[in-house]
Amino acid sequence: MYIHISEIGDKVGKKVSLRGWIHRKRGSGKITFVVLRDHSGIVQISLKKESLPEKEWKVVDEVTVESSVSVNGTVVEDKRAPTGYEIQASGIQLISNSEPYPITEYQSTELLLDKRHLWLRSTKMTKIMKVRAAVFRHARHFLDSNGFFEITPPLITSSAGETGADMFTVDYFGKDAYLTESSQLYSEAMIYSLEKVYSFAPSFRAEKSRTVKHLAEYWHLEPEMAYYDINMTMELVEGLVSAIVSGLLKEDAELFEQAGADKNVLSHIKPPFKRITYEKAIEQLNSNGKSLSWGDDFGVEEERLLTEKEKVPVFVTYWPKEIKSFYMPINPEDERTVLCADLQAPGGHGEIVGGSERIWKYAEAVKRFKEVEKAKGTKFNMDNYSWYLDLLRYGGVPHAGFGMGMERLIKWVLNLDHIRDAIPFPRMMNRVSP
Ligand code: 4AD
Ligand code: MG
C-alpha cells in the first residue's frame, strides 16, 4: 500500500512505499540522493548501489528530474535531511521517464506562464492551489450551512448582466451571443422558488485592463437572497468573508502560512467590518491629496489609498447611480445614489465584493431601464430583458445579492503580487494559453 510523504513521521523504522516525481537528484558512483515530491510534500531518499538489484541501480543512474517513480524503503530520522526524515531505499521502479525539464531555477515570469502546465508542479503553485481549493470549500460550506441552495447558471447568454460593454461575443449558430459577465440575473430568477441561492461559476470580462487585479475569466460567487436589504447583505458578506478566513486559519493553518498568509494580519478579520459612504470616501481621499469630484469612480490608486492602513475590509456604500448598475434601486435618503455596497480588501488589494439591493417593483424597473437605455445608447436593449422584467411582473419580492471575485479574495489573503497566481490557467488580455 502506498502512503503519502506527509504520513512518514508516524512510520519511523518501518518500511513504506511512496510514489511521486523526482524533484532533485545528486550523487556519486555508489550513493545517490533524490528528493521525491508528491502532493503532500518532499522527502529525501538515499539509494545505495549495494542495497539495490542491478536493474534498479540502473534506474537510479538514468532517472531524470520530473520522472515519475515508486520507491520502497525504511523511514529513518535524519536531522540533516531537509524535512527531518530520510527514506533508505530498498527498491525503485520507474513509472515514466522525463525528458530534460524545461523549467530550471531563476526563470522569467513569461517563461513560467508559457510553461504554466508544468509550473503548476512547483511548490509555490501547489500550495496556492491547495489554499484555493480550501477557500472554495469554506465558502460553499458557509452558504450551505446558512440555508442557501447552490444553483448552476448558463454561461452563454443573450443579455448583459452588467454594463455589456465588456462581453466576449460568441457565434451562436450564426447569431451573436455572449459569455456571461455575471450570473446575477439568473440567480435572481431562482429566488422565486429557492429564496436563498448562490451561483459559483466563471464570469468573463473583455476588459482591456492590464492590471494586477484583472482577469478575463474569473470565478464568481454570486449569492442572491429574497427579503434581504443592503444592511442584511453587508452582514452576510462579513459573515462569509470571516468564515473563509477563520476556516483557513483553523483548518488549514500550516498550509495557509506556508502559502504566504500572515496569520497576525488575518486574525483581525472578524465582523463588523468598517463602513463608509462613497461621499465620505471621496472626502477622505481628497484630504489625502487626491482631487476627485462627486461621480468619479475609483481606480487602483484610490482603492490603495483608501485601505492601505486598514486592518479590516471596508464597505463603501451608496454610490452615485451613474456609475452603478441598472438593477440598483435609488437610495430614498439621497436620490443621487443607489442602495449598494462594495467591499474593499485591506492593505490596498482593492474591491473584492460588489453588492446591492435590486429594484423589485415592475414600474420602477421599467422607468430605470429606460433612463439607463437613454444614457448608455443602443448597447442596452430592453427586449433582451423581458424575461428579467417578468420576474417582477409575477410576484416580485424585495431582494438583494452580491458577487465576490474568488481570485481577488485569494490574492488578498495570500498577499500575492498578481491575481494570475490565484488561478491555475490565467486568462488575461495577452494570454489565452496554455
Ligand atoms: O462589481 P461586479 O462587476 O458586480 C457584478 O458583476 C454583480 N452582478 C455581482 C452581483 O451582485 N451578483 O463584480 C463583482 C466582483 C468584483 O467585486 C470583483 O471581486 C470581481 O467580481 N471582478 C473581477 N475579478 C477578477 N477579474 C476581473 N476582471 C473582475 N471584475 C470583477
Ligand atoms: Mg464592482
Task: Summarize the SSE layout with pairings.
Layout: E1 15-27, E2 31-38, E3 41-48, H1 54-62, E4 68-77, E5 85-96, H2 109-114, H3 116-119, H4 123-144, E6 149-151, E7 156-157, E8 169-172, E9 175-179, H5 184-194, E10 196-204, E11 217-226, H6 230-251, H7 253-258, H8 263-266, E12 274-277, H9 278-287, H10 300-307, E13 314-317, E14 330-331, E15 334-338, E16 340-345, E17 350-358, H11 362-376, H12 386-393, E18 399-405, H13 406-413
Parallel strand pairs: 3-5, 6-10, 12-13
Antiparallel strand pairs: 1-2, 1-4, 2-3, 4-5, 7-9, 8-9, 10-11, 11-18, 13-16, 14-15, 16-17, 17-18
Bound molecules: 4-amino-1,4-dioxobutan-2-aminium adenosine-5'-monophosphate and magnesium ion.
Keywords:
binds magnesium ion; binds 4-amino-1,4-dioxobutan-2-aminium adenosine-5'-monophosphate; eight-stranded mixed sheet; single chain; 13 helices; alpha+beta; BirA Bifunctional Protein, domain 2; OB fold (Dihydrolipoamide Acetyltransferase, E2P)
